[in-house]
Design brief:
Elements: H1 4-7, E1 12-14, E2 20-22, E3 25-26, H2 27-34, E4 38-42, H3 43-60, E5 65-70, H4 77-84, E6 89-92, H5 95-104, E7 111-113, H6 120-129, E8 133-136, H7 139-152, E9 157-163, E10 185-186, H8 191-201, E11 206-211, H9 222-237, E12 244-248, H10 264-280, E13 288-291, H11 295-298, E14 302-313, E15 319-323, H12 332-336, E16 343-344, E17 354-359, E18 368-375, E19 383-386, E20 407-412, E21 415-420, H13 429-432
Parallel strand pairs: 4-20, 5-6, 5-13, 6-7, 7-8, 8-9, 9-10, 9-11, 11-12, 12-13, 15-17
Antiparallel strand pairs: 1-2, 2-3, 4-14, 14-15, 14-19, 16-19, 17-18, 20-21
Helix pairs in contact: 3-10, 4-5, 6-7, 9-10
C-alpha cells in the first residue's frame, strides 16, 4: 500500500484555512489566476527524484552511471531546459523531441535516439550530431543506418535494443519485452545474435552497448535481473563485451493508496549486483550503466487541477461530479484503466461525505477520471486536485472536442513560472486552416 506522501509532491501543504498549497502557493489562487484545467510541476520533487536515484546508483556502482530522462513522459522547451541543468541525459523518440532537446542545451553525447520506426531525417540527425547512441531496433534498420553512415563517411555509436522474451506484471499495453512485442531484436528467434554479429563486423557502425526495456509500471527487480543475465549471456555467445548497458526504465509509480510503493534502493541493489556479478565472473571491465526513467522523475511532481461544475446523483446513490477537463488532458484512465485519487483544494481538511465518481466533460462514456472515490460535500466552483499527474498525461493530450490544452506551471518557493500557456485551437493555423 502506498503512503499518501509517496503519491503527492513533496511540497504539498495546507494553509491556515485548510486549503491546499504547493511550495507555499495557494492552489485555489493559481487555479483562479491561470485557469483550469491546469497542470503544476513541483520543482523540489523533480530534483529529489533525480537526485535520489543518482545518489543511489553512484554510491553503489564503482563504474560510470547515467540517468537519462525519457522525454515521452513529458517534454516542453522550458521544462527541458531545467532538466538539462540537472546532470541527466535524454531519451528521444521523434524529431520533435530531438529538436527540443537540442534547443534546451542537451549535449549530443547525452542524447539517445529510440523508436521502432525512425525516419531517415531522425537517423541522419543522430549520425550528423554524433549522439551517444542510435538504438537499433531491427535488422533492416541496422542495414539502413549503416548505409546512411557510409554515405556520410561517418561511424555512429549504436546500441541494439534486445527483446529478451520476459513477461512482466503490468497492463498489456505497457509490456514491451515479450516475445510478440513490436519493439527490439528477439533473442528466441536469433535476430539479436545476428544483429550483434553484423554490427560488430560493419565498418560503418560502432557498437558500444545493449539496451532493453521491459515495459512500464514495474515494481519488482527480478525481471530486470533475469533479463540482464540474458543480455550478458547473449553478448558473451557473440564474442561481444558491452561497454554500455541499459536496463531501460519502467520503474513503478503509485497513483493511488491501493497501489504498491516502489522500493528504489532494493531495485538499484538488485540491478547493480546482477551487472557486477555477471561481468566480474567473466573478467570484463564494468560497463557504463544507463538508467532511463521518465515517469519516475515527473509523475509524482505533477498535479492536475480542475474546476468542479455539474454534480448529480447516480443510479447507485453516489455522486457524479463533473470537472472541466477529462480524457483530452488525461487519456490514461480510458487507455489503461488507470486509477487515481484526489482532494478538493478548498476542503482538504473537511470530513468525507460520500462516494463519488469523477467524470470529464467530453462526449464519450469512457471519459471518466476516477471510477470511485470519497469526497466532502462539493459545489460548483470548487477545485479538484489529482496527484501523480506529471507523466503521460500532457504528452498524450489532445484538442478533442476542440478543447484547449492546459496551462502548465513550474513552482518553487516564492516563484511561479509558466512552462506552457493554455493552447486554444482557434489560435492554431492547423485547426483554422490558415
Amino acid at each position: 500500500m502506498a503512503r499518501p506522501a509517496a503519491i503527492y509532491p513533496i511540497s504539498i501543504g495546507r494553509d491556515e484555512n485548510g486549503r491546499l498549497t504547493l511550495a507555499g502557493h495557494s492552489l485555489v489562487s493559481l487555479a483562479v489566476q491561470y485557469g483550469t484545467p491546469q497542470y503544476i510541476y513541483d520543482a523540489a520533487t523533480v530534483r529529489q527524484q533525480i537526485g535520489n536515484l543518482q545518489k543511489a546508483m553512484e554510491d553503489r556502482y564503482p563504474a560510470s552511471v547515467e540517468i537519462t530522462y525519457a522525454a515521452k513522459s513529458y517534454f516542453s522547451l522550458l521544462f527541458a531546459r531545467k532538466l538539462s541543468q540537472m546532470n541527466v541525459g535524454v531519451d528521444v523518440v521523434s524529431m520533435g523531441e530531438f529538436r527540443i532537446a537540442q534547443k534546451a542545451g542537451f549535449r549530443p553525447t547525452r542524447i539517445h535516439l529510440h523508436g521502432n520506426n525512425k525516419s531517415e531525417e531522425e537517423l541522419l540527425e543522430g549520425i550528423d550530431q554524433a549522439i551517444q547512441a542510435i538504438v537499433i531496433d531491427s535488422l533492416e534498420e541496422l542495414e539502413f543506418v549503416a548505409a546512411l553512415a557510409a554515405e556520410r563517411h561517418k561511424r555512429p555509436m549504436v546500441w541494439l535494443r534486445i527483446t529478451p522474451g520476459v513477461d512482466v506484471d503490468t497492463h498489456p499495453y505497457r509490456k514491451t519485452a515479450h516475445a510478440h512485442s513490436k519493439f527490439g531484436l528477439g533473442v528466441a528467434n536469433g535476430q539479436a545474435a545476428e544483429a550483434i554479429r553484423e554490427a560488430k563486423a560493419n565498418p560503418h557502425l560502432h557498437l558500444t552497448g545493449l539496451h532493453m526495456h521491459l515495459g512500464s509500471q514495474i515494481f519488482e527487480v527480478e525481471p530486470y535481473q533475469r533479463s540482464i543475465r540474458l543480455l550478458i549471456e547473449l553478448a558473451e555467445s557473440c564474442g561481444f563485451t558491452p561497454k554500455e548497458l541499459s536496463p531501460g526504465g519502467g520503474l513503478g509509480v503509485p497513483y493511488h493508496p491501493d497501489d504498491l510503493e516502489f522500493n528504489m534502493n532494493a531495485w538499484v541493489d538488485g540491478v547493480i549486483e546482477t551487472v557486477r556479478t555477471e561481468y566480474e565472473k567473466r573478467n570484463w571491465r564494468l560497463p557504463k550503466l544507463v538508467i532511463e526513467p521518465g515517469r519516475w522523475i515527473t509523475a509524482r511532481a505533477g498535479l492536475a487541477v480542475y474546476t468542479i461544475g455539474s454534480t448529480k446523483k447516480g443510479a447507485d446513490g453516489s455522486a457524479i461530479v463533473s470537472v472541466d477537463g477529462g480524457m483530452a488532458d488525461n487519456p490514461r484512465p480510458a487507455m489503461y484503466q488507470a486509477n487515481y485519487t484526489c482532494m478538493v483544494a478548498e476542503k482538504a481538511a473537511a470530513a468525507l461525505a460520500g462516494r463519488a465518481r469523477i467524470v470529464g466533460k467530453f462526449c464519450e462514456s469512457g471519459d471518466e477520471l476516477i471510477a470511485e472515490t470519497w469526497l466532502p460535500e462539493v459545489e460548483r466552483g470548487d477545485h479538484l486536485v489529482v496527484p501523480a499527474a506529471g507523466a503521460y498525461q500532457l504528452s498524450m493530450s489532445s484538442n478533442y472536442n476542440l478543447a484547449p490544452r492546459p496551462a502548465v506551471l513550474w513552482v518553487e518557493q516564492g516563484m511561479v513560472e509558466v512552462l506552457q500557456r493554455r493552447e486554444y485551437p482557434e489560435e492554431s493555423a492547423w485547426w483554422m486552416g490558415q
